[in-house]
Structure prediction request, 388 residues.
Amino acid sequence: MDVRAEISRAIDGFRSKAVAVSHEIHEHPELKFEEKFAADLLTKTIGELGVKVEKGVGELPTAFRAETGGDGPTIAILAEYDALPNGHSCGHNLIAGAALAAFAGLKSAAQQLPGRIVLLGTPAEEGGGGKIILLNRGMLKGVDAAMMAHPTDAEWCTMPALATKHLEITFRGRAAHASLAPWDGASALMAIIQTFQSVDAARLQWKDGSRVHGIITDGGQAVNIIPEKTECQFLARAKTSAYADQMAQRVLRCAEAAALATGTTLSHRVIGGYKNMINNRAMALRYSSHTESLGARSPEAPPDLPTGSTDMGDVSHAMPAIHPVFAVSRHGEGTCHEDAFVKHADTPYAYDAMIRVAKAMALTAYDLLAEPELLRNATEEFRGRPQS
Ligand SMILES: [Zn+2]
Prediction:
């Protein structure tokens, strides 16, 4: 039998298992770095395929790594499985299911693979940057190309995810009775409010496609005390890390001005940041041709598509990589991080899409191993990438 047909057939055969695993993960949402149930279930299922799994790789207890195939180039398929406080509202259970099913399909053709497939379990995409940690700790060393796919409300073979810079700002003022002697105080809350107003005033001058958004995580201690300490967070997003850094600097200048005006002081720390996604077109277009033959059009996304950010961006700056998205809800029915999306991530429609995507990823990975020219094109494109 043709190897590609064998891979597809094996994924169909694995379907009920992949759906059950994905559904179970959906039923047990776990926050970043706490994905114990998901990591245990995934590694147990991979073990049942007759593959050795390394758990806790890169010193992350809920990360894992498995391999199949043999000598030759190495392609990594990445699985996410963390949830948000409102459940699996980003559908990472489907990312895990698709990666698992793709790996199972490729494992069934292990003897005929002209290279190696790595399945890497990557915790904490939602704000923890698990892939960045694993990348820095060498868990993607020797990998020639990497891929994953993410559910949303549309089908694109590329995703222009934005770079981020995540700041936490703390203001310290002076407490005073808010009625008896307010003049004795210096309000750390006013400093935060003025920071938000100054950041809003700066929006006009930021480049198209960039975003900045913040929350107040500590607005004061008691309503009858002039707030002594307050804390907020800002996330600046832009098409490049360099521009996200510039925006974050501007946010800090707004905060400094607010501190000066209110007689408070500030400190800040950088919580983290993701790089923008460099979509490898050679890989993306091959993935797209497979989804099309499986009945779903998956064109390149328009460059100004409103989008979020992902730690896959950092992977895409280290090797050729793709992060296609697939539709599990219809446009207007709710998208990632909305409460409604929790339900969309656990429907027969979503699982059909997950299996289709698993096949498209597995076939793309196989092509990268079997067609040296495709991998060469992807690598050359990566070497010529814009620096940012
Ligand atoms: Zn997500």
In short: The chain has eleven helices and twelve strands.
